[in-house]
Amino acid sequence: MLKRISRYWWFQIVGWSLNLGISVFFITTFGEPTSIFFLSLFLSCLLGVLITHIMRYNIQKLKVLDKPVKKQLLFLILLTFVFAVFFGILTEAMDYLIDYNPERMQKYSKLQRLFFSSFNAMWLLLVWNMIYYIYHYVERNRKQELDTFRLEAMVKSLELKTIKSHINPHFIFNALNSIRALVDENPQRARRAITELSNILRSSMQAEKMETVPLQQELDIVKDYLALEHMRFEERLKIEMDIDEDTLSQPIPPMMLQTLVENAIKHGISKRINGGVIRIISDFRDNHHELIVQNTGSLNGRLAHNPDGFGLKSTQDRLNLLYQGKAVFHINDIAGEMVESKIIMPLPSI
Amino acid sequence: MMHKAVIIDDERLARNELKKLLADFSQVEVIGEAANADEGIEIIESLNPDLIFLDIQMPGKTGFDLLTELEKAPHVIFTTAYDEFALKAFEVNALDYLMKPVEPKRLADALHKLQMAEEKELAAAMSGSNRGMLNENDQIFVKDGERCWFVKLGEVRLFESVGNYAKVYFGPNKPLILKSLNALEDRLDERIFFRANRKHIVNMRMIEKVEPYFNGGLILDLKAGEKIEVSRRQAVKFKEMMSL
């Protein structure tokens, strides 16, 4: 608030000084000014500051800026007119008081002189009002833009949260069903499975709070997830990991690898009677961190039919949000009847 | 009454869990299990169970696909984990389903409902119908896009041949099934289902009016408004049946 007031006064001082300067320039160039003229000019500028300040008080009091444009225009003209007359009267009174009575004005009556003064003042006030309105108009627009931008940012972060917290309920209930079967068959395994499932649920809740997590942490979740899926699919699911140890500390978006692995199981392994392989690869290549999930199966043009199947579109969206377009995600068929989804992320600058 | 049941689910643990639950119900005996739709069809055809517990999401073919391939659908209780798509299909048609992990109370309810339905059928069957044929209490499973139905044959008013498919008219619906009209005619009870012409089989109970047609043919007005022409040769047969 303090800053705003000072900006207003800054405008006032510069504006009226400019007016003063221009008047001085013209009068010294084209005429012979007397010292009493300078006094009159200076005092009228001070009056100008006072009167426009009172006018501004009225603009604020009447809430002119909140009115529709047509009414604003009407108020602008009305205020300019009223205050111009006010200004004219005060200038004339002041000139009378300081005994400033230039020769060229002596042939006019008091009323005529008042009219001239007011007319002059009107132009000044009109310019002042224009600047005042335009300034506020621009400021309002800028603020509105800022608000819109803030809103967009908020929507984005909300979207990000809902994307992150996604864990397929189908998986959860199937896992619980398997665990119940294991309670009699293999109680040790059942107990471990409960721990694995709670790890996944916990980290899917915590994922909302973080932008990135170290790969190691994400990989722990994925391993728990795969252990549970292995419990369901048994020998139909084979798991292979090829992780470069140095990439374990790399930051990655939480639950992203998890989503890709989940998709690989859902669309790859679970659709095949004889199951298949899930392979996870993490490596450095060309100054980038590559994270790859391969699974047995084929896309079969599924992408063309449904390009925004939840996991895929949201993965690209999240990468765009986090890396501003510097990270790439693609998915395609590769040799050996496999599907490969690959994330290429830039290395964080040190 | 003892039910011979099979369990079809791709997960061994899920099958075991269900068997364990069913052990508490003396009226159900599990006589077989299968891990996918094709194995499922095989054991259904060889063991002829009167109840199947059927998972929907399975590798290869879904549980729905399996049912559409059966000539006559046995009693089915679907088992599924959370699955929005399947739930929608159930809500529309009130098929019976159990959510995994299965609550024993829900299982008891489902079996009780089955018992009721069967008693009703038994009473109907007693009133006479020749064995081996599909009778009007038998149900067929019909899937049309996202929607599925179990339809009692008695509710079907008309089968219409469309290429290799047959269009099944019941209520406001007329989905397609992958069966030829000739195959259907062989299995349907001819006292109820009458082959009116090359393209149509009509449910006799759904006929409202019979009108003569030129060249010795007939026109059958069905209750729902369809008009079916009876060829001259079939008209003779129709009149014979009617005069009996």
Would you mind describing this structure in some detail?
The complex is a heterodimer of chains A (350) and B (244). With 350 residues, chain A is an alpha+beta fold. Helix content of chain A is 65%, strand content 13%. Chain A has helices at 2-30, 35-61, 69-98, 110-164, 169-185, 187-206, 215-233, 256-268, 302-305, 310-323; strands at residues 213-214, 237-243, 251-252, 276-285, 288-296, 328-334, 338-346. In chain A, the strands form two sheets. Chain A has a five-stranded mixed beta sheet with strand order 2-4-5-7-6. In chain A, strands 1-3 form a two-stranded antiparallel ribbon. In chain A, helix 7 runs parallel beside helix 8 (256-268). Chain A is rod-shaped, with a radius of gyration of 38 Å. The model of chain A has no long low-confidence stretch (mean pLDDT 86). By secondary structure, chain B is α/β, with parallel strands linked by helices. In chain B, the strands form four sheets. In chain B, strands 2-1-3-4-5 form a five-stranded parallel beta sheet, with helices on both faces. Chain B has a five-stranded antiparallel beta sheet with strand order 10-9-8-12-11, with no helix packed on it. A three-stranded antiparallel beta sheet of chain B has the order 13-14-15. In chain B, strand 1, helix 1 (12-22) and strand 2 (28-34) form a beta-alpha-beta unit. In chain B, helix 2 crosses helix 3. The longest helix of chain B is centred in the middle third of the chain and has 23 residues, at 104-126. The relative contact order of chain B is 0.09. At the A-B interface, helix 5 and helix 7 of A face helix 1 of B.
